[in-house]
Task: inverse folding
């Protein structure tokens, strides 16, 4: 099968077959990253623009490396340095970029749905690199890739996603992806961080970390967004950490071979204890490695869907 | 609706076996033993043939020749012209090709564009001492200045005909057919 879409906007409207195609293709690209010469000519002469309206180092670098390893040319637009600070609208910015014959626009934007608007109006392929509290599809794909690599199959896999589910696009994309693939997903967090009626997404909600962790095969920690402190979702970081930090003691509640994942950057001692982050169960750095291969697969497959 | 095309068998199982045995002997003669030789099969047809040649070389020379597989998709010159992306498969070359004689193996040599792509792909893995080419069938109609080192069978064809190689490993009895 081949991909018949121009854009990757979210996981919600992807089929199981499409997700599998992304993962299978990423497997071939992973090999490229371990070669001496980490480059293939597949996107030679194509231009990828990273348009980031929110600070991000990891995701932007990962997309940049992915594009460069495919021989594409990459331009990085950071919001503070661009004309956006002079009052230009998103659409005008994007039209200007397209006028320079960009083939891909990788967009991170604080507003949910921003990539969908661009995708409708531009010829270029749009890749959602995180839009508000909506979706972060490439993060979910790289998490799935890492899981498949370590656990082989998704069916029957028990996962707990822990943290601020309500405000996390990583959680949302992962819930869509994992439930589609047949995994059993739990979400764990204080009531202020779980969306109302979250179970309608096909997950089970837990307020207590110990209950949520019991017997799970995978623990997916979310970053506590310290910059969101003002929203008052919890009384203090200390209290949050006491109740929701993944510690070595709590790890014992999960399956003996449980994996620990985190989209990064990690807050050591806040949501995850250093001993856990650095333990053999942790696949946090595998996620980063796989992110490049998955994004190569996304750019490659989208370039065929126009 | 697709028209049913006439099918003509041009090589049977025995002829394929004989051709591969002869190629294996030619390889061992030309490289005086197979010490610095490795086989790289081009996906998908070339992979099984490379494995068969390695088995023959083991019988003839008693030496194990390393075998790799190469997916040339990312090096195709028509990648941007195609409507949809071809399915990407894995390249696996688990040895250092630098200073080895690499024998590329493919089922059918036609325009030569696949081989051009394969050579480009191979060069990204190192600098081989020499690249040779072994094909089961050479059907002519070259569009690039490329020539096979070892040929199982020279097969004159018309441009609009299709040559297909079926192998046991693909779940089909060994044979080469022309569809016209």
Result:
């Amino acid at each position: 099968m081949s991909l018949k879409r121009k854009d990757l906007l979210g996981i919600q409207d992807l089929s199981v077959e499409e997700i599998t195609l992304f993962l299978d293709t990423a497997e071939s690209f992973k090999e490229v990253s371990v070669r001496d010469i980490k480059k293939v000519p597949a996107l030679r002469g194509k231009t990828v623009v990273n348009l980031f309206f929110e600070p991000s180092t990891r995701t932007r670098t990962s997309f940049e490396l992915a594009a460069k390893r495919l021989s594409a040319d990459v331009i990085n637009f950071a919001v503070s340095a661009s004309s956006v600070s002079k009052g230009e609208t998103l659409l005008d910015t994007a039209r200007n970029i397209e006028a320079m014959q960009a083939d891909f626009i990788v967009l991170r934007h604080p507003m949910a749905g921003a990539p969908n608007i661009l995708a409708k109006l531009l010829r270029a392929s749009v890749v959602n690199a995180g839009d508000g509290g909506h979706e972060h599809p490439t993060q979910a794909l790289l998490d799935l890739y890492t899981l498949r690599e370590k656990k082989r199959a998704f069916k029957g896999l028990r996962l707990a996603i822990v943290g601020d589910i309500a405000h996390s696009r990583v959680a949302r994309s992962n819930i869509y992806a994992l439930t589609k693939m047949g995994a059993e997903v739990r979400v764990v967090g204080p009531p202020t961080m779980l969306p109302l009626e979250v179970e309608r997404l096909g997950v089970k909600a837990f307020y207590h970390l110990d209950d949520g962790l019991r017997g799970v095969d995978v623990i997916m920690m979310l970053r506590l967004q310290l910059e969101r402190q003002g929203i008052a979702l919890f009384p203090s970081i200390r209290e949050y950490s006491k109740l929701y930090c993944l510690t070595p003691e709590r790890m014992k509640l999960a399956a003996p071979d449980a994996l620990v994942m985190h989209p990064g950057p990690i807050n050591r001692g806040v949501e995850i204890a250093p001993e856990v982050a650095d333990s053999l169960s942790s696949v946090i750095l595998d996620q980063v490695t796989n992110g490049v291969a998955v994004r190569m697969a996304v750019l490659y497959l989208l370039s065929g869907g126009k | 609706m697709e028209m049913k095309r006439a099918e003509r068998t041009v090589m049977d199982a025995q002829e394929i076996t004989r051709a591969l045995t002869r190629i294996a002997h030619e390889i061992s003669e030309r490289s005086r033993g197979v010490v610095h030789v490795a086989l790289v099969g081009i996906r998908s047809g070339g992979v099984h043939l490379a494995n068969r040649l390695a088995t023959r070389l083991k019988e003839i020379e008693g030496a194990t020749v390393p075998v790799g597989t190469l997916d040339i998709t990312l090096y195709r010159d028509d990648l941007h012209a195609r409507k949809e992306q071809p399915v990407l498969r894995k390249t696996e070359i688990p040895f250092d090709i630098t200073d080895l004689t690499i024998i590329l193996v493919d089922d059918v040599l036609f325009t030569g564009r696949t081989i051009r792509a394969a050579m480009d792909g191979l060069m990204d893995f190192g600098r081989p001492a020499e690249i040779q080419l072994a094909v089961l069938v050479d059907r002519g109609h070259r569009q690039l200045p490329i020539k096979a080192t070892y040929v199982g069978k020279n097969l004159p064809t018309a441009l609009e005909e299709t040559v297909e190689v079926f192998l046991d490993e693909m779940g089909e009895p060994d044979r080469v057919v022309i569809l016209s």
